Amino acid sequence: MGEQLALYPVRLPEFEGPLDLLLHLIRENRLNIYDIPIAEITRQYLEYLELMKTLDIKLAGEFLVMAATLLHIKSRMLLPRPAPEEDEEDPRMEIVRPLLELIRFQEAAQRLYSRPQWLRDVFPRGMSFEDDNSKPPPVKASLFDLLAALRDLLKRNAPPEVMEVRLARVSVRDKLDQIWKELILKGRLFFKAFVQGADRVEIIATFLALLELARQGRVFLVQNRPLGEIEVLKR
Q1: What angle do CA 178, 208, 228 make, to 5 degrees?
Q2: Residue 96 lies in a domain
């Protein structure tokens, strides 16, 4: 993908963990958490790890441990079922229990965030405020939401079977400056707008530039609904 991209490692201070990735996959596929198709989830999980490895995103050891756990559960489920009188727990419960715990924590955090807070919910005299409850507030887009958008774009921009080998002339720094200038002018843009008509190398460079802007705290990544289109807002 070009020397300039290969030499641009991504290190994020706030990085979602392997359970967050699993939960993202379950929600993305609209699966029953108590009946996870372990073979398909394992395949998609490893696909995400490979994508992050390609982008040189530094993976914590917990991601590899979870990959090994999923493969172990998959192998156990391929074994013959025990006799009906033997009460053996479903191997998938090994990941279902921590996933349920993560959901409880996320829901508790959301309830705390939605409670009134000093200054956030105080409006000085003279400020116009319209209480519009018809439209839900946007939700923060996670790293995995952004990776999902990148994955879909790369699939739609798959290279032809016969390729012309060219030297990549894309700089992540140039893309970062370009995105920042557009945000200064417009304030907010959809992620897809940054890669309209771009090739695979440009798409990846744009993705890395957005990650860097998010790491620096210069942009918000939000969605109008969970798993919706990602919008980039200037802080």
Answers
A1: 95
A2: yes
Would you say residue 182 lies in a domain? yes
CB under 8 Å, gap of 24 or more: what pairs does 156-160 form? 157/198, 157/199, 157/200, 157/203, 159/200
Q: Is 58 helix (H, G, I), strand (E, B) or coil?
A: coil
CA-closest candidate to residue 178, choices 153, 199, 206, 198: 206
Query: What's the pLDDT tens digit per position in 100-115?
Result: 999 998 888 777 766 6
Give the list of residues 6+ apart from residue 210 with CB closer than 8 angstroms, or none.
146, 179, 191, 194, 219, 221, 232
Residue range(s) defining the domain that contains residue 96? 3-79+90-113+137-157+168-234
Residue 70 inside a domain? The answer is: yes
Residue 6, pLDDT > 50, answer no
Total number of domains in the chain:
1
- Reported in sequence order, the residue ranges of the chain that DSSP labels E, i.e. its strands, are 139-140, 188-190, 219-223, 230-234
| Distance from the first to the final alpha carbon of the chain | 31
Q: Is residue 122 part of a domain?
A: no
Task: Kindly report the pTM of this predicted structure.
Answer: 0.66
Number of DSSP helices (H) and strands (E) in the chain, helices first: 9, 4
Contacts of 108 (CB under 8 A, 6+ apart): none
Closest CA to 73 of 27, 31, 36: 36
> Do residues 190 and 231 touch, judged by C-beta distance below 8 A?
yes
- Neighbouring C-beta atoms of residue 66, cutoff 10 Å: 21
